[in-house]
């Protein structure tokens, strides 16, 4: 690994207290980036930041933010700039899931998922782009990275609202790429399949509770057998290389792309 690959990149990551956000933050810092870890759980985010700072190379700060609030997004961007001098990359990763069959969806389920996964992405993109535009042109593009999902392209009957929210992330990636190109901001994303994180561990339990699966672990097994081309589920370490590629100058000529890192699920 090149410890200077992301040198000079100051990166805001939402939802960075655990799961893929935390792994990406550590991986970015190992390659020289400075990272601001925004999360609704500031204590856990601070632990990740402490680990990064103890290790050396890129620096880290943690900020408490509720991504659904515009003022928290603006404050997280400002904290990144205060700590590191500017912001070059925004990774909009915070997200959640709460499965429901189509006819059982209610307004609370809809609002919860759409607010955190989609509305918050728009807010984060907008507040980050506002700061990038104010900073003025830089030689290499500014970068926005959105976390989609296999659910950005596949209708899954147990998680309609999650699919709607993640198709929305794909639309924000396409629309943002077109809208922000004149400011030298690229907008790309990546789309995992099944990644073993606290989100999926909760989902595994919830799928039993709504009656979609009979026992814990069955969802992992069924998806691996029936959906995945590569016959195993993934871990945050499987995802971090693609996230780092999108944050790096290696992806400078890409915009409007959502890269699938899903073991081939999207072609099944
Ligand atoms: N785990 C998977 O299989 C999978 C697959 C495809 C896409 N994704 C997406 O990847 C992203 C990361 O997922 P993960 O599996 O690492 O999840 P995770 O639950 O492990 O981590 C999500 C983080 O987001 C934070 N968060 C939640 N609501 C927030 C809010 N309102 N404000 C600020 N922070 C908030 C949580 O505190 C947590 O630290 C999500 O967007 C998720 O939808 C996950």
Automatic annotation (TrEMBL):
Transmembrane segments: none annotated. It comes from the Bacteria. Belongs to the short-chain dehydrogenases/reductases (SDR) family. The keyword Oxidoreductase applies. Keywords: Oxidoreductase. The keyword Glycosyltransferase does not apply. This is SDR family oxidoreductase. One of its GO terms (molecular function) is oxidoreductase activity.
